[in-house]
Batch of 2 targets.
Target 1
Amino acid sequence: MINLAWPDSRHNWGKLLITGCGLGLLVGVTVSMAGVYRGMVEDAEVLIGGSGADLWVVEQHTLGPFAEASRIDDDLHRSIRQLPGVRRAINGSFQTLLIQRPGRSLRVLVAGVEVGVPGGLGQPPGLVAGRSLLRDRDELLADPGTGLQLGEVVPIRRKRFTVVGLTTRMVSPTGDPMLFVPFRDGQDLQFLPGNEAIARQRRRRDRPVERQALTNAVLVQLEPTARPELVAAEIERWLGLTAYTRPAMQAAMVGKLIEASARQIGLFLVILTLVTTTMIGFIVFTLTQGKLREIAVLKLIGMPSRLIAWMIVQQAVALGLFAFVLGTSLATVMAPRFPRHVVLQRRDLIAAAVVALASSSLASLVGVKAALGVDPAEAIQ
Amino acid sequence: MISSAPPPPQPERPAGIVVSGLRKTFGSGSAAVTALRDVQMRVEPGEVVGLVGPSGSGKSTLLKCLGAVLTPSGGHMELGGQLVFDGDHWLHPDLTRLRREQIGFIFQSPYLLPFLSVRDNVALLAMLLGRSNQEARAAADQLLADLDVAHRADAMPNRLSGGEQQRVAIARALINRPPILLADEPTAPLDSPRAMAVMDLLERLAGQMGTSVIVVTHDEKILPRLQRIYVVRDGVVGEGQRERVRDAPVRFRSRRLRNT
Ligand SMILES: Nc1ncnc2c1ncn2[C@@H]1O[C@H](COP(=O)(O)OP(=O)(O)OP(=O)(O)O)[C@@H](O)[C@H]1O
Ligand SMILES: [Mg+2]
């Protein structure tokens, strides 16, 4: 028996190709959106997990330091260090600001961390070039996404920093590239008033501005035997702060910051499914409608209905597959060119394949129903 | 004038088509339309008979019943020596298969599949009967050669002239050597010489293969080529004399005939 679906598709290649490409773009967009979401989750995991902190301590009842503002005294880490189970506790400042790059300004997240061993608490998990922060002033580690070069001098506010190292990919929960500076500098950037503010306050004869001894968060590393939940509870009870374990912090980031994207992508998936089903249904129906005469003749001369139905199903499913392959190829090719970090996961591709196949099979039923409804007697007039 | 023809000679082998007391009524109650009344027919193997009659007389209805796509309201039908309809039900369990194996169809338009080559259009039905693609295509080539269109076997149907397409359609109808061939206005779109050629072919192939052929036609030029003619009027089928019909083709000046 020869295959009828293929020659018929070849006969109608124009219509099918246009539909297939349209669907392919749609699949590509949706897969990319899912990839952006996965990228955000992955970035958040690097940001939280890569810091080496077992606990994040922030201002009471806030979801700091990324999702909400958090300010606590910068000497609280000493009290935290006294608690049983705590090995180290350091200050961490986090501030989003603009730096000037040739021809544009770039939004970055500046993390102020205590200078320490590479890969240690608060430090970026890895460097691709240069060294880690050694002096506690004026040095800077940059995410390669900033475009900064080793040895480059970067003016930020009133200060000038020298790039001493480039990190592996480190971005904020909103996708801005990160800079790491010594905590003192980070604190100054955030809490030391600018020249203008000082001058203004002097003119108004306010009380003199002084540097505030604040930090955004304390990063805590625990002894291997300590239970993070218990230590967090201790910190909250005795110091009037809020402490997040690493999973809680990750969940909070993904939940609060990325939730909206997840919902958006979910919605896109629903739209994709609906549009795919409708478009394939429509094209299959149109093609079948154009063949009713031939179908009546085929039935009259003795072709079993199931072979006719099979031809229509094959065509629809092939269209769905084509769209899937085109869409995922497009997404794969485009991923590195996206401004955001796109991570194409196997499970998302499988989900896209399932959606494409399920909706195309479903859509083919429209054509199958039309074909089965044809009365072979109509071939005789 | 058309008069009652003598009953056809009793053959040794079973007749191709035997119809008796066939009735068909559409709808019911006051809206009922009786399209066929008590039809008697007998077509021998190798015989080519015509079915003529004015519009709305019931020709297509009869062809649909014979083609097993319309269930009669009553009567009996034998196709290829096999009783297929008995009073009120079909005896064959799978009418699609019955059509595939026993009946060839030719239509006013060729209705070839536009996306298959001429060869595959013809071979398709042989493949449906379980023959290998290669075998089916070889058989198709043979038949196309018989019908003088072998040189177009690889072409797509829309590249063929109307006459060539109609010959391909005939090849498709005959590929499985069915005992029955039903043709609905097969010469309507053709000019006179082509129509004659098609009739020649039907006659020759029917003779060779022992096929019983029924040709529904309005086409007076082909009437002389038919061995016998059934005239349909208001659902009543009677045998007509060919010469008389040819003499007065337009109005079919026949009186109503009721055989038996
Ligand atoms: N499905 C149907 N439902 C109701 N009436 C029908 C149906 N099919 C045919 N008829 C009626 O049965 C009668 C015979 O119709 P049929 O189509 O057999 O005529 P015909 O001889 O083929 O005519 P023509 O030469 O115009 O094709 C007509 O009166 C027609 O209206
Ligand atoms: Mg008709």
Target 2
Amino acid sequence: MSAPGGQIVVDDLTKVFGGNVRAVDQLSFSVEPGSITGFLGPNGAGKTTTLRMVLGLVRPTSGRATIGGVPYRQLPNPTQTVGAALESASFHPARTARNHLRIMCTVADLPMQRADEMLDLVGLHDAARRKVRGFSMGMRQRLSLAAALLGEPQVVVLDEPANGLDPDGIRWLRGLLRHLAEQGRTVLVSSHQLNEVEEVADRVVILNHGRLVRAGSIAELSAGTDSVLVRSPNLQALHTALTGQPVTVEPVDPTAVRVRGMSAAQLGNLAFTAGVELHELSLQRFDLEELFFSLTSGQ
Amino acid sequence: MIRLIRAEFLKLRTTQVWFWLLLATIAVGALLAVANIAPHDGIRSEEKVPDLFATFAASPAYILVFVLGVLGVTTEFRYQTITPTVLQTPSRWAIVTAKMITYAITGALYAAVALLAEAAVGVPWLNSKNIPVHFGNSEVQHAILGTFGVIALFGIIGLGVGALIRNQIVAVVVGIIFLIVLENILLAIPVVKKAWPYTPNGGTQAILYTHGDATPVNGVHLLSTWSGVVVLLLWAFVPAILGAAITMNRDIT
Ligand SMILES: Nc1ncnc2c1ncn2[C@@H]1O[C@H](COP(=O)(O)OP(=O)(O)OP(=O)(O)O)[C@@H](O)[C@H]1O
Ligand SMILES: [Mg+2]
């Protein structure tokens, strides 16, 4: 690990393409070291554009983005500070996977065997000397990842890295991201696969129409959203028992209610004490997908 | 900078373009030697021998190295390898400078190959006609050095045009049309043709022909050798500088 302070700060960033396409609109958020941040939003929300501005590839119309306090274009050793995987298409088709990485090693003054080590890491050992032309989507995705991790960067920025990966690959990627965050690195991952993100991310930043709709840790977002489904033939008695308790009760169907503000254990105990017969007592988990749709639909 | 230049050579080596263009350079060099010696009005006396070594740079064969330079940048945009390139080296000046040096050196290597091909075909042939070839002759040396310089500069010109235009097909087509078609049209129009000595071909002719003013082309007088060098340097550096300052900074999406 090289440069300290791998915080990404996006500050009031705006990008207008061709005078009228407002791809990113006054966006501000930050990404902390030692955690995985999921960057979510529907197609065309501005995720890729934002990442490209963070990486100095697209010039913001206004606002700025910094990595460890410095704009990307002023980083002294970018390869060793930030690793990015943007599109799976950015390879010369006639060049081999290994040569692609060796060129990067040359620029960054890394030993050439780093190229082979990374190819082993991403499972491309056998394809190392094959031309990228013949690579499948998932293989390209793995090669992008190898390129991103080449310089052991403090900050890792990945645009839809799970695209094209098989289920094994996705599980492996999840483990890899976890591992990187545990080492104290900053990990920013855009994704469409909400379940994947929910499982692996510590924080999420949700974007719609170029604007921030919600940012926070999964814990914050799910706070108060966990509920318990209680089914009983005698709801009337349950209501009586819950009177005076700090809970909200919401009817689900004639034999069940959804209760917020109390754990399943507390509710079970309460019902037992009051002698209320229960047919079901189940925890309803926070659902990122539901939150995502409620935040990004109908706009 | 050394690392960037080494990486550029590695990029060049790990694709196939360099190989096909090198084959073309050898073939064209050999053919040009034939074209200079075989016809009745070909090289028949010792003072015409420098023509054998000037012919590669003096004919549109320099297009081969020009195209190599154009591809040096535009391939990166075509296959988006410009993204990793720029991520690793955010300074567009550094990228363009490394490429300029790489393609100037490559141009000089191709010039050497072309000269060798010309010599391999031409020298034994001329000797068999009892026309001696003296490499100590100052005009022969001028033609050889001029070829190195011109071809190396055409590597940079191609690179600059590529950096300025970014689009591969457009850059190649615009470059070839300008160098081969427009310049000749220019030369055919009265008054306007006075600008021709300041074009890449005009500069090249001025560098290669020591006779200079004595042999006007289409009634237009050539510049002196050193003025020709300045003209070609401007054609090499102006597009590259504009490319590094402006178009290379455009959004990469
Ligand atoms: N070079 C460009 N020129 C014009 N408009 C652009 C350009 N790049 C992106 N856009 C527009 O900006 C908006 C945001 O695009 P962006 O690619 O950032 O979205 P995204 O969130 O990454 O979408 P996806 O999930 O489909 O990858 C879209 O409306 C897109 O059409
Ligand atoms: Mg995108």
